[in-house]
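#struct-help
A.M.: can someone run this one for me? Single chain, 142 residues.
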Amino acid sequence: MSFRWSTPPRFQDVDAAGIVFYARLFAYFHDAYVAFLESMGPELALHRAVDSADFLIPLVHAEADFKAPLRFGDEATTTVSVERIGRSSYTLAYQIHRGDGQLAASGQTVHACASKAEFRARPLPEALRAGLMQHHVASESQ
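D.P.: on it. Structure tokens below:
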């Protein structure tokens, strides 16, 4: 099951051509990611985890493809799905659709789990792994 998050493009996100500036797509991905984590439970909400968890989940790779213009005033829904869950990392896929259903952008981020104390790889916490499994694309076909 994919996670969906909606927000209209903001005026400050558009460039001189009147479309959302491509770099802002990463901000949309990130905002959806923060909401996605929070949907998995209060202990995984980013604002709480940063302060109290003994782990970090830094972004180690990001990519995006622009597909169609997204303009100020459009509706925009970002879909987040889990493509891969490893021992200490996971890959998320994003799609941003306009209100008319047109795919405006797609992308991917890879997050690695590290201990907060040593900043070294560590296994994903069980609560995080369980939450990710609920949105894992391979789980949808089972």
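A.M.: thanks! The chain has a mean pLDDT of 92.
D.P.: also worth noting: The two ends are 11 Å apart (CA to CA).
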